[in-house]
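Same chain as my last thread, 277 residues:
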Amino acid sequence: MGWFWADPVKTQTCPVSGSSKGSKCPVTHESAPKNAKSSTTDGCPVLHGSDPQDGLNPLNHIPANLSMERQSHQILELPKDRTTSSIPKGSEETGEFWEYPSPQQMYNAMVRKGKIDPNTGEEIPEDAVESMVFVHNYLNEGCWQEILDWEKKYIEDTNVEPKLLQFMGKPTQYSPRARWFNFLGTVFPTWFSSELPFDRHDWTVLRPDPSSSNTEHPGYKKVRYVIDFYGGPDDEEGLPTFNLDVRPALVDFTSARDRFTRWTEPILSEYFGSEKK
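reply #2:
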Protein backbone atom coordinates (compact mmCIF):
# COMPACT_ATOMS: atom_id res chain seq x y z
CA MET A 1 0.00 0.00 0.00
CA GLY A 2 1.20 3.52 -0.01
CA TRP A 3 -1.71 5.90 0.35
CA PHE A 4 -4.44 7.33 2.67
CA TRP A 5 -4.65 6.98 3.59
CA ALA A 6 -4.84 -9.25 15.04
CA ASP A 7 -7.77 -10.47 15.21
CA PRO A 8 -8.07 -13.25 12.71
CA VAL A 9 -6.62 -11.92 9.51
CA LYS A 10 -9.33 -10.74 7.16
CA THR A 11 -9.21 -11.78 3.53
CA GLN A 12 -10.68 -9.60 0.83
CA THR A 13 -11.09 -10.15 -2.84
CA CYS A 14 -9.55 -7.51 -5.05
CA PRO A 15 -12.53 -5.79 -6.70
CA VAL A 16 -10.59 -5.30 -9.91
CA SER A 17 -9.41 -8.13 -12.10
CA GLY A 18 -6.14 -6.47 -12.97
CA SER A 19 -6.10 -2.87 -14.07
CA SER A 20 -7.68 -1.35 -17.12
CA LYS A 21 -6.59 -2.08 -20.68
CA GLY A 22 -5.13 -5.43 -19.77
CA SER A 23 -2.53 -4.24 -17.29
CA LYS A 24 -1.86 -6.50 -14.34
CA CYS A 25 -3.16 -5.68 -10.88
CA PRO A 26 -0.91 -2.89 -9.56
CA VAL A 27 -0.70 -4.25 -6.02
CA THR A 28 1.96 -6.79 -5.11
CA HIS A 29 0.33 -10.00 -3.90
CA GLU A 30 2.26 -12.18 -1.49
CA SER A 31 1.32 -15.19 0.60
CA ALA A 32 -0.32 -14.66 3.97
CA PRO A 33 0.60 -16.57 7.15
CA LYS A 34 -0.68 -20.14 6.86
CA ASN A 35 -2.08 -19.93 10.38
CA ALA A 36 -4.17 -16.88 9.52
CA LYS A 37 -7.90 -17.20 9.28
CA SER A 38 -9.64 -15.43 6.45
CA SER A 39 -12.86 -13.60 5.65
CA THR A 40 -13.81 -10.69 3.41
CA THR A 41 -13.82 -6.84 3.69
CA ASP A 42 -12.00 -3.47 2.27
CA GLY A 43 -5.94 1.51 1.13
CA CYS A 44 -4.18 4.08 1.75
CA PRO A 45 -3.10 7.70 1.22
CA VAL A 46 0.36 7.62 2.86
CA LEU A 47 3.58 8.43 1.05
CA HIS A 48 6.06 5.95 2.50
CA GLY A 49 9.58 7.04 3.28
CA SER A 50 8.75 10.73 3.06
CA ASP A 51 10.55 13.42 4.99
CA PRO A 52 8.06 14.83 7.57
CA GLN A 53 9.58 18.27 6.98
CA ASP A 54 9.12 18.08 3.21
CA GLY A 55 5.86 20.05 3.12
CA LEU A 56 3.79 17.09 4.34
CA ASN A 57 0.56 17.05 6.30
CA PRO A 58 1.57 15.57 9.70
CA LEU A 59 -1.75 13.74 9.98
CA ASN A 60 -1.18 11.56 6.94
CA HIS A 61 2.30 12.36 5.58
CA ILE A 62 0.87 13.40 2.24
CA PRO A 63 2.04 16.61 0.56
CA ALA A 64 -0.19 19.36 1.88
CA ASN A 65 -0.88 20.64 -1.64
CA LEU A 66 -0.70 17.57 -3.84
CA SER A 67 -1.13 18.78 -7.42
CA MET A 68 -4.12 17.97 -9.59
CA GLU A 69 -2.28 19.13 -12.71
CA ARG A 70 -1.52 16.74 -15.54
CA GLN A 71 2.15 15.83 -16.04
CA SER A 72 3.83 17.08 -19.24
CA HIS A 73 4.82 13.54 -20.26
CA GLN A 74 1.45 12.03 -19.32
CA ILE A 75 -0.44 10.26 -22.11
CA LEU A 76 -3.80 9.38 -20.54
CA GLU A 77 -6.30 11.78 -19.00
CA LEU A 78 -6.74 10.69 -15.37
CA PRO A 79 -9.80 11.60 -13.26
CA LYS A 80 -9.39 14.45 -10.80
CA ASP A 81 -12.42 13.65 -8.66
CA ARG A 82 -11.72 12.63 -5.08
CA THR A 83 -13.77 10.00 -3.24
CA THR A 84 -15.00 10.70 0.28
CA SER A 85 -14.39 7.81 2.64
CA SER A 86 -16.68 6.56 5.41
CA ILE A 87 -13.95 7.33 7.97
CA PRO A 88 -14.64 10.31 10.28
CA LYS A 89 -11.82 12.80 10.77
CA GLY A 90 -10.44 13.32 14.23
CA SER A 91 -8.85 16.65 13.36
CA GLU A 92 -10.35 20.09 12.92
CA GLU A 93 -9.60 20.12 9.20
CA THR A 94 -12.27 21.04 6.67
CA GLY A 95 -14.70 18.21 6.03
CA GLU A 96 -16.20 15.60 8.30
CA PHE A 97 -14.70 12.57 6.58
CA TRP A 98 -11.30 11.72 5.12
CA GLU A 99 -10.98 12.03 1.36
CA TYR A 100 -8.93 9.72 -0.84
CA PRO A 101 -6.57 11.17 -3.44
CA SER A 102 -7.82 11.35 -7.01
CA PRO A 103 -6.12 9.15 -9.64
CA GLN A 104 -4.33 12.25 -10.95
CA GLN A 105 -3.04 13.09 -7.47
CA MET A 106 -1.92 9.49 -6.99
CA TYR A 107 -0.07 9.62 -10.30
CA ASN A 108 1.58 12.94 -9.40
CA ALA A 109 2.64 11.55 -6.04
CA MET A 110 4.22 8.51 -7.69
CA VAL A 111 6.08 10.76 -10.12
CA ARG A 112 7.25 12.82 -7.16
CA LYS A 113 8.56 9.69 -5.43
CA GLY A 114 10.29 8.36 -8.55
CA LYS A 115 7.87 5.45 -8.98
CA ILE A 116 7.14 6.40 -12.57
CA ASP A 117 10.58 6.56 -14.12
CA PRO A 118 11.82 4.02 -16.68
CA ASN A 119 15.33 4.49 -15.28
CA THR A 120 14.37 3.23 -11.81
CA GLY A 121 12.76 -0.04 -12.82
CA GLU A 122 9.64 0.98 -10.91
CA GLU A 123 7.55 2.29 -13.75
CA ILE A 124 3.81 1.99 -13.12
CA PRO A 125 1.54 2.07 -16.19
CA GLU A 126 -0.76 5.06 -16.37
CA ASP A 127 -3.72 2.81 -17.09
CA ALA A 128 -3.11 1.01 -13.78
CA VAL A 129 -3.51 4.10 -11.61
CA GLU A 130 -7.32 4.15 -11.47
CA SER A 131 -7.45 0.50 -10.44
CA MET A 132 -4.71 1.09 -7.89
CA VAL A 133 -6.67 3.93 -6.29
CA PHE A 134 -9.83 1.83 -6.25
CA VAL A 135 -8.12 -1.13 -4.57
CA HIS A 136 -6.37 1.10 -2.04
CA ASN A 137 -9.64 2.82 -1.11
CA TYR A 138 -11.37 -0.54 -0.82
CA LEU A 139 -8.72 -1.87 1.55
CA ASN A 140 -8.80 1.25 3.71
CA GLU A 141 -12.54 0.92 4.13
CA GLY A 142 -12.01 -2.67 5.25
CA CYS A 143 -9.39 -1.57 7.76
CA TRP A 144 -11.84 0.88 9.27
CA GLN A 145 -14.58 -1.74 9.51
CA GLU A 146 -12.16 -3.99 11.40
CA ILE A 147 -11.30 -1.16 13.79
CA LEU A 148 -15.01 -0.48 14.36
CA ASP A 149 -15.40 -4.14 15.28
CA TRP A 150 -12.63 -3.81 17.88
CA GLU A 151 -14.20 -0.57 19.15
CA LYS A 152 -17.73 -1.98 19.32
CA LYS A 153 -17.73 -2.32 23.10
CA TYR A 154 -16.72 1.30 23.61
CA ILE A 155 -19.22 2.51 21.03
CA GLU A 156 -22.03 0.69 22.83
CA ASP A 157 -20.96 2.17 26.19
CA THR A 158 -20.93 5.76 24.94
CA ASN A 159 -23.13 5.80 21.82
CA VAL A 160 -20.33 7.77 20.16
CA GLU A 161 -18.39 6.65 17.08
CA PRO A 162 -14.57 6.72 17.06
CA LYS A 163 -12.63 8.92 14.64
CA LEU A 164 -9.40 8.52 12.73
CA LEU A 165 -6.91 11.15 13.88
CA GLN A 166 -3.84 10.24 11.83
CA PHE A 167 -2.14 7.37 10.03
CA MET A 168 1.29 6.46 8.75
CA GLY A 169 2.67 3.83 6.41
CA LYS A 170 5.65 1.82 7.66
CA PRO A 171 6.31 -0.74 4.92
CA THR A 172 9.88 -1.47 6.04
CA GLN A 173 9.16 -1.52 9.79
CA TYR A 174 7.78 -4.98 10.48
CA SER A 175 5.62 -5.37 13.55
CA PRO A 176 6.70 -7.80 16.31
CA ARG A 177 3.76 -10.02 15.38
CA ALA A 178 4.80 -10.15 11.72
CA ARG A 179 8.39 -10.97 12.71
CA TRP A 180 7.14 -13.71 15.04
CA PHE A 181 5.06 -15.31 12.28
CA ASN A 182 8.07 -15.08 9.99
CA PHE A 183 10.20 -16.88 12.59
CA LEU A 184 7.57 -19.58 13.16
CA GLY A 185 7.33 -20.09 9.40
CA THR A 186 11.07 -20.65 9.23
CA VAL A 187 11.07 -23.15 12.11
CA PHE A 188 7.70 -24.80 11.41
CA PRO A 189 7.10 -24.36 7.65
CA THR A 190 4.31 -26.96 7.67
CA TRP A 191 2.23 -24.93 10.08
CA PHE A 192 3.21 -21.34 9.39
CA SER A 193 4.19 -19.18 6.45
CA SER A 194 7.44 -17.23 6.57
CA GLU A 195 6.10 -14.56 4.20
CA LEU A 196 6.32 -11.03 5.57
CA PRO A 197 3.53 -8.46 5.02
CA PHE A 198 3.91 -6.27 1.94
CA ASP A 199 2.88 -3.22 3.95
CA ARG A 200 2.18 -1.95 7.44
CA HIS A 201 0.09 0.98 8.66
CA ASP A 202 -0.24 2.54 12.10
CA TRP A 203 -3.58 4.31 12.59
CA THR A 204 -4.24 6.58 15.59
CA VAL A 205 -7.89 6.41 16.54
CA LEU A 206 -9.81 8.69 18.88
CA ARG A 207 -11.87 6.38 21.09
CA PRO A 208 -14.86 7.95 22.93
CA ASP A 209 -13.97 8.11 26.63
CA PRO A 210 -15.84 10.53 28.95
CA SER A 211 -13.22 10.01 31.67
CA SER A 212 -10.31 10.90 29.39
CA SER A 213 -7.98 13.67 30.52
CA ASN A 214 -6.98 14.45 26.94
CA THR A 215 -7.20 18.24 26.74
CA GLU A 216 -6.47 18.33 23.00
CA HIS A 217 -9.41 16.05 22.20
CA PRO A 218 -11.83 16.21 25.18
CA GLY A 219 -13.95 13.11 25.62
CA TYR A 220 -11.63 10.91 23.55
CA LYS A 221 -8.64 8.67 24.18
CA LYS A 222 -5.90 8.07 21.61
CA VAL A 223 -5.55 4.41 20.63
CA ARG A 224 -2.94 3.21 18.14
CA TYR A 225 -3.80 0.34 15.81
CA VAL A 226 -1.28 -1.73 13.85
CA ILE A 227 -2.35 -3.11 10.46
CA ASP A 228 -0.30 -5.68 8.54
CA PHE A 229 -1.22 -6.24 4.88
CA TYR A 230 -0.62 -9.65 3.32
CA GLY A 231 -1.39 -10.88 -0.17
CA GLY A 232 -3.51 -14.02 -0.40
CA PRO A 233 -4.06 -16.65 -3.08
CA ASP A 234 -6.37 -15.85 -5.98
CA ASP A 235 -9.99 -16.77 -5.42
CA GLU A 236 -12.05 -19.18 -7.52
CA GLU A 237 -12.59 -16.50 -10.17
CA GLY A 238 -8.90 -15.72 -10.40
CA LEU A 239 -9.14 -12.42 -8.51
CA PRO A 240 -6.42 -11.59 -5.98
CA THR A 241 -7.25 -11.52 -2.29
CA PHE A 242 -5.71 -9.61 0.60
CA ASN A 243 -5.31 -10.45 4.28
CA LEU A 244 -5.62 -7.74 6.92
CA ASP A 245 -4.18 -8.28 10.39
CA VAL A 246 -5.73 -5.46 12.44
CA ARG A 247 -5.23 -5.08 16.20
CA PRO A 248 -4.56 -2.41 18.86
CA ALA A 249 -0.87 -1.91 19.59
CA LEU A 250 0.35 -3.42 22.86
CA VAL A 251 1.15 -0.11 24.51
CA ASP A 252 -1.09 -0.22 27.59
CA PHE A 253 -3.09 -2.58 29.78
CA THR A 254 -6.42 -1.83 28.07
CA SER A 255 -5.14 -2.79 24.62
CA ALA A 256 -3.53 -5.95 25.99
CA ARG A 257 -6.79 -6.86 27.74
CA ASP A 258 -8.83 -6.22 24.60
CA ARG A 259 -6.57 -8.46 22.52
CA PHE A 260 -6.58 -11.22 25.15
CA THR A 261 -10.37 -11.08 25.51
CA ARG A 262 -11.00 -11.06 21.77
CA TRP A 263 -8.87 -14.12 21.12
CA THR A 264 -9.99 -16.16 24.14
CA GLU A 265 -13.76 -15.59 23.92
CA PRO A 266 -14.28 -17.92 20.91
CA ILE A 267 -12.38 -20.68 22.73
CA LEU A 268 -14.32 -20.21 25.94
CA SER A 269 -17.57 -20.15 24.00
CA GLU A 270 -16.75 -23.35 22.13
CA TYR A 271 -15.47 -25.42 25.05
CA PHE A 272 -17.23 -23.95 28.05
CA GLY A 273 -20.43 -22.62 26.55
CA SER A 274 -19.83 -19.01 27.54
CA GLU A 275 -21.46 -16.41 25.33
CA LYS A 276 -19.86 -13.29 24.03
CA LYS A 277 -21.60 -10.20 25.40
